[in-house]
Amino acid sequence: MVYVHGGGFTVHSSANYGDTSIARNLCTKGVLVCTINYRLGVMGFFTTGDQRCLGNFGLWDQTLALRWIKDNVSRFGGDPNCITLFGQSAGGASVDWLSISPHSRDLFQRVIPMGGCGECDFAIRTKENQTTLGREFARFLGWKGEDSDTESLLEFMKAQPTSKLELGFSPKKGFRHSQAGNLYFVPNFDGDFFPKQPSTLRQEMPKKDVMCGTTHFEGLLFVSLGGRTKSLDGVRKFTKVMYKECDFGEHVEEVRKEVFDFYTRGLDPKDTQSTTLAMIKLLGDYAINVGVFNYAKIMASLNHNVYFYSFEYCNPDNMGFFGYFMPFKAATHCTELRYVLGKGIISKFKPNDNDLKMIEIMTTYFTSFAKYGDPNGKLLDATSSFTEAPSTTDFTSTATATITVTPAEKTITGTTTTTTSIPSASSSALWLPHSASSPLHHFRIDLPNSAMKDDYQERRPLFFDEINKRNLSRASL
């Protein structure tokens, strides 16, 4: 299993995501785990828009690391033909891009994008849009050249001290750019790492096993970090930041109004709890939920083996100091990672008994998927032996079936007409493969039980089908 860290293509390294905790929680379940680093920010994703500097160096770094792992993992007892790539947020987008690029797509067999993927708006820009942002940043730093003088632009950027090129999550003080989104330097459709349109490459990629999903309230983290007025006016301003002319052209004002109306319909402007929740839902949908929802649907329609989840477990007492800034406690961006990697990420992590149960559940799902392409584990003649029961943890067996639960050597046999709990990691319902014909169907992961549900994010992603049809930039990708 190879982990690609997130951080908005801008911050962090593999060191932020644990070492002994990964060994304790994942490696004890019969897998090898590698974590990798890659260039970030300007160093990783600046482009001049031509052959002088195509950008996407971070993706090339990831590819080189994958190639080394595939060539050498057998020396560590691993199988070079059974590699699972997993990542979260920008790391999730990265593993998706690696799965479609012809330079990297044959280096692994399975992929787990968590809370981010290539279908998310933050994950890529057109070459032209990313080049424009890069020029605007260079002018902010003092570059005076002509837009067409890419040689001068590149030399200027190379001459800057790293202290001037450093970026963080917060907007660069005094810098304003014309492009949609909060992130500055991200992958671009360069014609090199992506020799064809990403949508075309997705259709051409080899079949892979996919496990993907989001948390219950992805936007809660972003709102808690501050910088957004939690009011109707704040929602309106956010739509202006995220929906810009560069993407929607003459339709931009009608798109902004439709989005604003959808999230604020019937709200009392004086009800701060409701307006805060509306902002949380909008931020989460825009940044993460809609993209991952579309990704699961597209990949299933292309006949990949897809498992789609919503992680909804939260220990409200384990948010640390960050919890003081949260309007309410719930599963949010990054919090699922502590139950996979064992590291708190956004706060210190001192697991209680329920946390330890969820660690066991999540690490078993992840390692079972890595080994077998199925988070339920190695099923022996069991798939056809149980019927779905979305609202309960019990299934009725219609024939004798044995299910092997990994990594422990435990089996449970269900006999005719008797009711038994499915022996997945959580003794909850069987996690069913995703279907493009039922795109809202997903596996809700929670305590005390996990189960199949059919109302992903209150069905809000369906609203964006019409919105995204008017996104000119996305149409070119």
Describe the structure.
Strands 2-1-3-4-7-8-14-15 form an 8-stranded mixed β-sheet, sandwiched between helices. It is an alpha/beta fold and 477 residues long. It has a single domain (2-224, 276-375, 432-475), classed as 3-Layer(aba) Sandwich (Rossmann fold), CATH 3.40.50. A hairpin with a 5-residue loop joins β14 (442-445) and β15. The longest helix is centred in the middle third of the chain and has 30 residues, at 272-301. α9 crosses α13, α10 (232-242) packs antiparallel against α12 and α10 (232-242) runs parallel beside α13. The chain is 36% helix and 13% strand.
The profile of the biggest β sheet is: 8 strands, mixed
**Would you state the CATH class?**
Alpha Beta
Portion in helices: 25-40%
Residue fraction in strands: 5-15%
CATH homology-level superfamily: Alpha/Beta hydrolase fold, catalytic domain
Query: Which architecture would the CATH scheme give at its second level?
Result: 3-Layer(aba) Sandwich
Task: Please provide the count of β strands.
Answer: 15
The main sheet orders its strands as 2-1-3-4-7-8-14-15
User: For the CA atoms, what is the radius of gyration?
Assistant: 22 Å
Protein name: Carboxylic ester hydrolase
EC number: 3.1.1.-
GO molecular function, one term: carboxylic ester hydrolase activity
Domain Carboxylesterase type B: 1-385
